[in-house]
Amino acid sequence: MTQKLIGKVALVTGASAGIGKACALALVAEGAKVVLVARRKDRLDELIAQIQASGGQALAVVGDARDEQTALNAVAGGLEKFGKIDILINNAGVGNYKNLVDTSAEDYDEMMDSNVRSTFLFSRHVVPGMIAQKSGTVLMISSMAGIYGFGGEAVYCATKFAQVGFAQALDKELRSHGIKVGLICPGGVKTEFALGKGRTEDSVAQSGMLEPEDVAAATLLACTQSSNSRIIEIQMRTMDEALT
């Protein structure tokens, strides 16, 4: 690695597995210190130990990204331990693949809160520090489901379209403060995402979907742009995608 992120501090939500974990490891490999947020303490502890064993520095914040107090704790902890936050990766999210008539209000609330509310909360509480330091990068891990709709995924698509609109608006709002805002929009990724809610372990394992590390590499690219450039949106699909 080229260590392009030495001196930078990154906050990653949904960091205990999948894309979030891959992003955390990629950021650390480039020299960043990381604040990692997730609900599963055992998974976070394992990841922190792995990072520290490699010589990296990391802070674990256990909590639900849907809760404002979790965002407040993460920002306060990052500032106390590392002094600043330069990069925010809004990765936490859930999916539930159902037709509209099978989708409950509870399903709707869970997806909206996990995917959209968490993005708002962490952005809301990280951005003031970035404005003060006149620099920063805010990235949303959205989806190709935020670019066009898929049958059987209406509410999930709505949450991802919301992230796209949120990012586009923040790009215009925050650029004058030296803050870059961008989107990473992958297609299907081989993670625990939506297992039991439209996906199975076998279907994911046998698929040709992207790997978490593929998405982490795109995220890292957006985090390492020159000071006068920004990546607005990266759309990603697997090479195994059908041609028709």
How would you describe this structure to a colleague?
This protein has helices at 18-29, 41-53, 68-82, 105-133, 154-174, 201-205, 212-223; strands spanning 9-13, 33-38, 58-62, 87-90, 136-141, 179-186, 233-236. The mean pLDDT is 93. The radius of gyration is 17 Å and the shape is globular. It has a single domain (9-236), classed as NAD(P)-binding Rossmann-like Domain (Rossmann fold). With 244 residues, it is an alpha/beta fold. Helix 1 crosses helix 7 and helix 4 (105-133) runs parallel beside helix 5 (154-174).
Ranges with pLDDT <50 over ≥5 residues?
none
Spatial ordering of strands, largest sheet:
3-2-1-4-5-6-7
End-to-end Cα distance: 38 Å
Succession of helices and strands:
EHEHEHEHEHEHHE
Q: How many structural units, i.e. domains?
A: 1
Class by helix and strand content?
alpha/beta
Keywords:
single chain, 244 residues, alpha/beta, Rossmann fold, seven-stranded parallel β-sheet, 7 helices, 44% helix
